Each structure stands twice: as structure tokens, then as C-alpha cells.
Amino acid sequence: MESQDAKTENPQLDWRDLAAELSQNVEGEVHFDSAWRAMYATDASNYRQVPIGVVVPKNKEDVLTAIAACKKFGAPVFSRGAGTSLAGQCCNVAVVSTGRTAFDLADVLQMSLQQASRSASVEHPHA
Predict the structure, then answer these.
(1) Please, what is the Cα angle at 58 between 18 and 15, to 5 degrees?
(2) In the CATH scheme, what is the code of domain 15-123?
(3) How many helices (H) and strands (E) does the chain have?
(4) Measured CA distances, 38 to 43, 51, 127 (Å)
(5) CA angle, 112 as apex, 111 and 113 as ends, to 5°?
(6) What is the C-alpha to C-alpha distance for residues 127 and 11, in angstroms, rounded to an integer?
(7) What pLDDT is stored for residue 65 in this prediction?
(8) Are 42 and 82 in contact (CB under 8 A)?
């Protein structure tokens, strides 16, 4: 993990500790370096928002672990598909969770944030 100056909307967010926790607990890839953040800062539009970091989950447990860690540190989470939106919908100052290699989040998981409990649930659509 390369040293960098992650810009966030929350100056209280300790991205270094968040990155360390994600790196220790996620089986997939965790990237908080400038190169990866730059790759996920754009989509097919001219819009640009540099994310806090990028998580490439290997399985659904990684998704849950990443969401829990981000909640603990007060970091927003953004789930991204192929990055082909034309109006900046897949760019955000958040920890970006992408299914680019391990599995397709849209096809494998149905995720819903429950406002009342402020927790995440993951369900397999074919179960």
C-alpha cells in the first residue's frame, strides 16, 4: 500500500487505519494508492471524483467485511460495476467496491441498505 493523501469529505476519517483494517480482513484486493484511485476516479463521462480507496472483493464475505469496516470508520461505500455511466454516476468520494474480476456484484448479490438499522444485508438472488 503506497502512501498518499486521500481527500475525503470527512476530515475525521482516518483512511490509513481503514486501509490497514481492510487489508488485514479482506481476501480480495485493497488499494488506497494514487494510481488505483485515479483509475476509479472517472467513468465514460468527463466527471471526475477521486475515491478514498478501492476494494475488489473476492466473495460476498469480503463485501460484508468492507461495508462493516467502512461503517466503523465513518467512510461512505460505493458499489461500482463496469464504469460505463455517461453522467458520472459511478464516481464518488467513497471506498469503491467493484466486482471487476472476482464476480459480478450485480448478478451474484442483491444488496440492500436498511435505513432503520443502518446495516447491510446480502442475499443470493437464486437461493
Answers:
(1) 10
(2) 3.30.43.10
(3) 4, 6
(4) 11, 8, 37
(5) 130
(6) 41
(7) 92
(8) no
d(CA 41, CA 97): 13
Query: Where do we find the cell 486521500?
Result: 6
Task: Return d(Cα 14, Cα 10) in angstroms, integer.
Answer: 9
Q: Tell me which residue of 93, 80, 90 sits closest to 42, measured CA to CA.
A: 90
Low-confidence ranges of the chain (pLDDT < 50): 1-4, 102, 104-117
C-alpha cell at 90: 459511478
Are 52 and 8 in contact, with CB atoms under 8 Å apart?
Answer: yes
Give the H/E segment covering residue 35: helix 34-39
The pTM (predicted TM-score) of the whole model is 0.70
Report pLDDT for 5: 52
Q: Hey, what's the cell of 86?
A: 455517461
